[in-house]
Amino acid sequence: MPKRTPARKVKSKPTKKSSSKSKSAEDFFYSLNARPDTVDFRDLMFVPTLSEVPPEISLEEYKQRCGNDVLILDQGKDGACTGYALANVANFLLRSRMKMPDKESVSPKMLYRFARRYDEWPGEKYSGSSARGAIKAWHKHGVCSNKLDEFWEKMRFEGGEDNNYMNLIDDARSRPLGAYFRVNHKDLVAMHSAMAEVGILYATAKVHENWRTPIRQEKEKTRKGKYCMNTLLNLILIISL
Known about the structure:
Elements: H1 59-65, H2 81-95, H3 108-115, H4 131-141, H5 164-172, E1 179-182, H6 188-198, E2 203-207, E3 226-230, E4 237-240
Antiparallel strand pairs: 1-4, 2-3
Helix pairs in contact: 2-3, 3-4
């Protein structure tokens, strides 16, 4: 009879346990470097009018208002959240204009770079910017097309290369900001009226680590956090073209 070969022991590979948690913090890395705005009494406050305010505005109404053509921008690892958030606002407002709507996406990099010229901190060699600085940048310079973003990385501000700087400025002037107002974030009536009037607000918010790795139950509450930008949260500026 043929000899029976001994059975080989095969080590089974451990199966990966399915985790109920979301992706790791590294997968959700964002540079949270927006700086909180200080009180500036030169800001004009938004005053609610007596116009009718709808009880709700559906997502479909928002899509129809801007021609179903507004996407939420993702800053990735760029520390330019103020520029990306304001670019979202600009894209929505430009597309929803009653006359001469503009479907060209605007440049978040220009808004962020020029924002540091109008922040309350000296110089431009620092990380982050404020919402007020970004708004002032749009108000004073306009905003150029996103198609011209490629020139920002290689540009010298003293004239630019091959007159690219002047091309950017000329294009930016075609998208000016008319007026902007601060909305009291503690006044729900004012915020509701502002949303009904223009459809979007520009805001900063304080976030914490659990925004990156959300959990179902929070054992300890903490006030520690960093500022980031979002187009529909806590600071509040209303803008109009």
